[in-house]
Amino acid sequence: MTAEGKVSAANRDHYREQFAQLALRHAGAEPPWLQRTRAAAFERFAELGLPSLRDEDWKYTSVATLEKHTFKLVPASLNGVGADQLVKPALDGSHLLVFVNGRYAPDLSRPGRLPGGAEVGSLAAAVADRPDRFESFLARDAEAPVNGFTALNAAFWADGAHIDLAAGCSVDEPIQLLFIATDADLAIHPRNIVRAGAGSHAEIIEHYIGLNDSAYFTDAVTQIQVDSGAAIVHTKLQQESLRGYHIADIRAEQGLDSRFTSQSFALGGRLSRNDIATRLNAEGCEATLIGLYMANGRQHMDHHTRIDHARPRGTSREFYKGVLDGAARAVFNGKVIVHADAQGTDAQQSNRNLLLSDIAEVDTKPQLEIYADDVKCSHGATVGQLDPEQIGYLRSRGLDETSARALLTFAFAEDVALRVSCAPLKARLEQLLREALPPQMRDQVRELQ
Amino acid sequence: MLTIRNLHAAVEGKPILHGIDLSVHAGEVHAVMGPNGSGKSTLANVLAGRENVVVTAGEVLYEGKNLLPMPPEERAREGVFLAFQYPVEIPGVANIYLLKAALNAVRKHRGQPELDAIDFLALVKDKLKLMEMDQSLLYRSVNEGFSGGEKKRNEILQMAVLEPKLAILDETDSGLDIDALKVVARGVEAMRSPQRAIILVTHYQRLLDYIVPDKVHVLAKGRIAMSGGPDLALELESRGYGWVEAQATTQARGGGDAARGR
Fold first, then answer.
1. Nearest Cβ partner for B50 among A392, A398, A412
2. Which residues of A touch B93 (CB under 8 A)?
3. A274 alpha carbon, distance to own chain's centre
4. Cα distance from B247 to chain A (closest Cα, Å)?
5. Confidence band for A436, pLDDT divided at 50, 70 and 90
6. Under an 8 A CB cutoff, do A397 and B93 touch?
7. Stretch among A46-55, A226-235, A328-337, A345-354 having the lowest mean pLDDT
């Protein structure tokens, strides 16, 4: 075994062998530019390896256990997932796309009726159909993958969603991308591409769920282009298996007067990491990033966000909260970069953490880099416990200590869910928050509603 | 209903109460007065079971039961209510949730079924009217952003909904303007009943213009220095606490106890 975080020689050979198998399958099926992109990305991965604690961006999140695990990289079958297993995770009224172990499952999906100008479906199918439409997006992979994980995704991605909205197109119901994992030891590399034309609107929910307690590995990349005047709300709901690994990179580019909202709710997974970035590439953009991570046991959850104010008069609001119990650990790093050209920027960031046990831990780091002079920027980070005065007050009114703590914890977390505007999603989140509470607390809180 | 015998208590290791004896019967309203630092709030906090107060000697019987070992929630369910001097703000917990949770905890303890949503709302609306409070306050977070007067009214609203047997009001009159004081007093008067005892802890006599107590006790340096009828409050108003404190010091020396008040 080599140094932590680097891919061991044995594992590298394994990755190479799996990539060779995949390349053979792609030869003739995929356009040459895509095959070249994948090959370049793989070489980049071989060179980068997986991040180590020596990388500044990964210094609180060790992926050593993931590195040691030998995953199958070639996607498997639907593996017996049936429609009955979708009843719970599917949101009412959504345009539903289901992916099982990384592959689009048309029989389980119900995209429903979409307005004219909206195209939603399997990325693999769309690329096979009209590869030229995706070249500009996918060929970027060869240039500069952000790290070993994004390089792996570029080399190995099998499927994902593509969402294309023509100018002025407005999808009223949420588009739910449901990624279901069932296979142990499988590495899944979903790739999603969202292109929102000028003035278009949509609410997209990228939802990951593990149906059992398998140790699998999701390595997702989502690219979002928000053209001028468009408004996209992207929600990431992570409910992976408690032994699963989840690594995701979500990257948006914003055009003139566009609005982008990212909502990240992390509840599952043994180890999870979200890199969420948006670049305000034109004047008058708005970006809103909200998030909630709730970890228990030995879960590790990491959020790295980055907002690039590249042009004048942009506004960004960031609001993240964490609730940590047991021996859980969380990382929050919020980078806001106000470039020299971004005069009149207004940026606010806040991260608040609630520790419910003595051994839970959080590393929070706001990071503001300001190169313009006419800006309004603020940030704040807190780590604390439940307030004994508040617990005492509730007990003096007849609530036992468990109920008092449950009520206060729920209120702390619900604060984030209440910022979600999509009604069915909000209701689902509230339900999940209740379920994330310790069992004896759950009933108490339900009683109060 | 309540018997306090030789109660000694300390806050953060500092002795505050030096032997309180007090009996309160159902149907009575007692006023406990005294200067700052005399131990008024500590006494109220001992009765409510707040954790910052440590009882070092003595006993408290409530309806014949030993009150001191009971956790605060059990006291509340048994019918003891403390209206706090400084009510805590609880962001994210709606006032109506707290009222419902508290009422259901009490009812469950009494073996009564939970009130359904319609009866509960009717009850709360009735009490809101009494306290001249707007219904919108129900859906706001508990005490968050409430003015001083709203917080105090909210305490009395909770009391009116929970209908305790023993109510202790800790300086509920402080920080109230005259109109708010009248509303609070009316709320308390409405609670007066032969089955209920009320203890008003107050620094000033003015609340007693609106709620005439059956008995008045004056605390000085952790002891009850003087007890009497409603007239005692008026006498205090004209003579000041110095008069009582001087007597208490004399008594303390006579008893050979190093009672040091602040």
1. A392
2. 407-408, 411
3. 5
4. 36
5. low
6. no
7. A46-55
- Look up the domain containing B204 and give its range: 2-255
> Per the domain annotation, does B200 fall within a domain?
yes
**pLDDT < 50 positions in chain B:** 254-262
Instruction: Please determine, for residue A67, whether its predicted confidence score (pLDDT) is greater than 80.
Output: yes
- Tokens found for residue B45: 């906090």
Q: Is B87 on the interface with A (CB under 8 A)?
A: yes
Q: Is B262 a member of any domain?
A: no
| CATH code where residue B11 lies | 3.40.50.300
Q: Residue A28's pLDDT is what?
A: 81
What is the structure's pLDDT at B192?
A: 94
CA atoms of B64 and B78, how far apart (whole Å): 12
**Residue A445, pLDDT score:** 63
pTM above 0.80, yes or no: yes
Q: What is the pLDDT of residue B250?
A: 65
Interacting residues of A25 by C-beta distance below 8 A, sequence separation 6+? none
Domains of chain A by residue range:
9-282, 390-449
Whether the CB-CB separation of A244 and A267 falls below 8 Å is answered with: no
Place of tokens 């970035």: A277
Q: Is the CB of A395 less than 8 angstroms away from the CB of B48?
A: no
Q: Which residues contact B65 (CB under 8 A, 6 or more apart)?
A: B78
Q: Which of A400, A415, A448 sits opposite B92 (nearest CB)?
A: A415
Helix B148-162 with B178-191: angle, nearest 10 deg: 10
Question: How many domains are contained in chain B?
Answer: 1
Tokens (6 digits) for A188? 């899944």
B102 and A CB contact within 8 Å: yes
- Which residues have C-beta within 8 Å of that of residue A39, sequence separation ≥ 6? A23, A155
